Each structure stands twice: as structure tokens, then as C-alpha cells.
Amino acid sequence: MIFFRKIKIVTVLGIFILLIGILLTIFISQNPQAKRQHTVGLGNIVIDYTSPMLKLNPLAIGMDISGYEYPNVFANDHIEQQKLKSLGIKYMRMDLTYSTPGDPTSKIVCSADGCDTRWTGDQWVQAIKAIGAQPLIIVHYSAVDAANMVKHFNKDTNNYVRYWIMGNEPDQAGISAATYSTNFNQDFDAMKAIDPTIKIGGGATAFNDAPFLQTFLQQSGSRVDFIDFHGYAQEGNVPGDYTTLFQIAAGYGNGINNLRSLIQQIVPARASQIGIEVGEWGLNWAGTAQDNTNFHAVWTASVLGHILSSGGWSLFYADKGNALYGNQQTITDPYGHVVNINVDDTNPSYHGIGMFTGEGLFRGFGDTMVNANTTLPNVEVYASDTPKNIVVINKDPSITQTAIVSLNGVTSGTIEVWRKDESVLFPNPPIKLGTLPLQNGTFTYQLTPFSITTFVLHTTSQTSSRLSPAPSGVLSPKSSPIQATATESTRGQVSLGLIVLKWISYVSVAHRRSISVGEAPPDT
After folding, report:
1. What SS3 class is residue 95?
2. CA–centroid distance for 322 within its chain
3. Are strands 61-64 and 401-408 parallel, antiparallel or unpaired?
4. 274 and 233 share a domain?
């Protein structure tokens, strides 16, 4: 009797301790002071590594080949090839044609007016592949020539090309959407009959021409693999207004989102299979206003951030004459610096892209975009996981801003800081400013005017995140901060209950009962 009385006393004490533990856990979970210091919402820049947005396509950062600036063009210029390889370009568009249309035995050459026709189509394609990029070939409105070109690369020469696109700015050439769509369908069927593994894009409009693309989707949406549109901010004869130009930069992302909605409306069954690319874009379509300024780098980074965060693919126009200088010249910048430029020197736009890719100087942007927000005016922020990088753009031409960065899902580590701003001569690469300690998931940094700052995170403590399955290019649902906190609170309650219940099971061994508790939910 004494033995069983002791067991009952111990059991009552165990239940009493369990109740206290549960009440204490509830109190702590509802007490804001007990939450982690880096909970979402403490900074004016908030990066939520527990809230992935979308998976980036490996080919998302690309560039067009102009074929210009004889005698040093991409096909034979090894310095250019090395610089674009360092930049991390993974997708390159080239316009090719038969030198004698209709004759598949004639030489395949570049098609743009005035381009360097010394090189064969195979040499252009091999040069693209040599830097680790995938070629995208433009074919024109002959189904016979288009099919023969697929046969040449993918069957006869084993110089495989997966990505193809039909035409270039048909709306500017006076070709109606209906006629273009008919031609596209004929080309598509003939090309796929040769090799069904290829991907064929269409549209290729001079701007995000919604009426044209709507007709194209209605007539060719059952076939097309990706939609392409182009866009330039200004002619470039006179400098543009900064505010207007950054609004245009944001418009690239809005255009992708609007086009995706149109695809979902017209061909909902195939919407998840149809990609979107901005096949040509740049600051100027004719002149050179603001080209040779640090602003050009900042604007380029802004556009690229908007394209990537909208799930699109980027093809910057172009290699020679924009990303890289095509001829020797002397330029005086807005501050009076006289800069001697050589062939293949980098343009500021090169570094705008490089602040995402690392341009061979630092580790590039990861393959997953995560939720990133800021309350700072004239500031944009883009963040990636696997690996973790943060790109912050201060678009203000005169004001330095203080960034208080709060990271959810990351606690400690170190941060490399790289910057391109007005203190760096316009053609020069970004500089490393130093390495910061990351503690308690937060850090502070000054954002100078017209600057791009890339923070390269090397974490030692973090929370894992998983991207929910979603169609290509479509944002996945995000978990809210409240849900994330509740998950952590639930995990704590279960863990405490598990300890107490195991203790009760141990002291009540005479009853030969075991109490089991389910596992805590996985990290969100």
C-alpha cells in the first residue's frame, strides 16, 4: 500500500508540473519580449529566408549578341568571351540566316544588317557554348529554312541547339499579329517535326504589345513554349528624368506579370508551361545619353531585379556597344574625369548585371528568390537563397540612407560587402568594402547615393526553408510571420510536454505504460 501511495503522489506531482509547463510555455509564446530578436518586422529592410518566392531559371540572366564592331566580335574575340563568362551570362541570342535563302547548302551567317559575316553559324554557336551559355537562335519566316537550320545543328553536325525564336519585332516591320501567328505555326510544326525536344518562342514584339500578343496567344498558344517582348527606356539623344526612368525599370516586372495573366486567361491549361523572356532591353535604343555614368549601372541593376523577381528571363542588349565598349575612345564623365576607353572595357551596365552575378569577383545570386521588403524611400531590395545574397539599390541621387536589415531564418555568420557607386569610376568594377559580423539576425549599413550594394552572406546558424511546388514562373504561397512564430511556439510546447511526459512515464514504471507525443512540425 505504501508503495502504491508513493506512486500516486509522484503521478499527481508530475501532472501538476505538466500543467505549470504548459501555462509557462503559453505565456512565453505570447510575450513579445521572449521572441527572437530577428523576428520579421524589426528593420527598415526585412529579408525572410523562411518565405521563398520563386525558383530562378538557370538561364535567367542572358545577353544578346549584336555581331557588330568588326573586326573584334564575339565569335573571335577571346577577351570578350572571357569577360562575358566571368559575368555569368548563361543564355545568348544570335540572329542567323542562310546566306542564300532557300539553299540549305549555303553558308549560315549572322543576319543583322552590317554584322560580321566572316563567321559561320557553327562558330557563333560554339563560341556561346564555350563560355558556358545556351544559344538562342532567331529564325525567320520560311518554314523550310527554319526546319533545315534545326536539321543542320541538331542532326547533321551534332552542334545541338535547344532554344529557338521566330522573327524579330514583327510589329515594327508592319506584319500583323494574325499573319505572324500563321507563319509561326508553320515554322513551329516544321521545326518540331525535325526535333521535338527543342523549345520555340514567339512574339518578339518591339515592346510589350498586348493586343499583338493576345492575338498571337489565341492563334498559337497551343504551341508556343515561351513568349518574348522587347523594351527600351528612351531614345538616348538627351538625358532622361531619373524618376521616370526608374518607373520604366519597374515596368519590366509589371509587364511580365500582366503577360502572365494574359497567358493564364487565354491558355490556362498550358500557362505553367509557357515561359516569359524580355528578349531585348536597355537604357537607350539609339543614342548614348547617360550610358557612361554610374546611373547606368544602377538603372540596369533595377531592371534586372524586377525581371528576376517577376519570374522572367533577361536578355540584355547587347554585348559589344553596350555591356562592353566596341571601340577605343576618350570619355569625360559628369565629374570631369577623363577616361581612356579600350576595346572590351566594361560599360557601367556590365556592372549593374555583375552586382547580381558577382562578375567573377564574389559569389553570385542564388537560385531561389525570397521575400524581401523595405520601407526606405527610393530603395529596392532583392534577396536569394542557395546561396544567400542580398542586392540593395539606392536610387536617390543625393541622399545616403541607413539600412537596418532584419533577417528571418538567419541568426549569425559573416557578410562580405561589395559596392558600385559614384565613388567608383564609371567603367570600373565594384569594390569590396569589408566583412561584417552577423549577430542576432540583424545588421546596419549606410547606402550611398546612386549605389548598388551586394551583401554576400556566410551563415553559421540558420533556419531551413522549402519552396512549395509551383508552376514555372508562378509565385508560390508565402507563409506569414504570424504562422512562422506560431510554428516555433508549437514546437516549444511539444518539446516541453515531451520532456515532462517522459519523466512521468519513468516514475510510473510500475504501471508499465508509455506515453508518446507526435513529432514537432517541420520548419516552415
Report:
1. strand
2. 21
3. unpaired
4. yes
The verdict on residue 471 lying in a domain is: no
Cα–Cα distance measured from residue 432 to residue 34, given in angstroms and rounded to the nearest whole number = 37
Instruction: Print the domain residue range for 435.
Output: 45-53+368-462
- What is the reported pLDDT for 467? 59
- C-beta separation of 278 from 441 below 8 A: no
- Residue 339 CB contacts under 8 Å (≥ 6 apart), including other chains: 292, 330, 331, 332, 333, 425, 426, 427
Answer whether 414's CB lies under 8 Å from 467's CB: no
**Do the domain assignments include residue 520?**
no
DSSP 335: T
Whether residue 363 contacts residue 387, with contact meaning beta carbons closer than 8 Å, is answered with yes
Model confidence pLDDT, tens digit, residues 97-147: 999 999 999 999 999 999 999 999 999 999 999 999 999 999 999 999 999
DSSP state of 156: I
Q: Locate 307 and state its grid cell.
A: 525581371
Alpha-carbon separation of residue 321 from 57, 116, 192, 285, 317 (angstroms):
27, 14, 35, 11, 9
Do residues 131 and 265 share a domain? yes
Identify the CA nearest to 137 among candidates 160, 113, 103.
Answer: 160
The number of folded domains in the chain is 3
Residues 49 and 153 in one domain: no
Same domain for 278 and 308? yes
Count Cβ neighbours within 10 Å for each residue of 427-457 and write b for 16 or more, e otherwise. Answer: bebbeeeeebebeebbbebebebbbbbbbbb
Is 279 part of a structural domain of the chain?
A: yes
- Are 196 and 137 contained in the same domain? yes
The C-alpha cell at 175 is 506584319
Rounded to an integer, the average pLDDT of 466-478 is: 39
Specify the CATH number for the domain of residue 375: 2.60.40.1180
Kindly report the number of other CB atoms within 10 A of residue 231's CB atom: 20
Domain shared by 338 and 383, yes or no: no
Residue 480 scores a pLDDT above 60: no
As given in the structure block, the three cell numbers for residue 294 are 554610374
* Spatial contact of 344 and 72, defined as CB atoms under 8 Å apart: yes
On whether both 153 and 287 belong to a single domain, the answer is: yes
Structural domain contains residue 518: no
Residues 170 and 198 in one domain: yes
Q: How far is CA 348 from CA 195, 322, 424, in A?
A: 40, 9, 10
Backbone angles phi, psi at 158, to 5 degrees: 55, 35
User: Can you say whether the dihedral through the CA atoms of 206, 209, 211, 214 is positive or negative?
Assistant: positive
- Give 338-345's long-range contacts (Cβ < 8 A, gap of 24+): 339/292, 339/425, 339/426, 339/427, 341/427, 343/69, 343/72, 343/79, 344/72, 344/77, 344/79, 344/80, 344/83, 345/427
Contacts of 1 (CB under 8 A, 6+ apart): none
Distance of alpha carbon 491 from alpha carbon 517, whole angstroms = 12
User: What's residue 4's pLDDT?
Assistant: 40
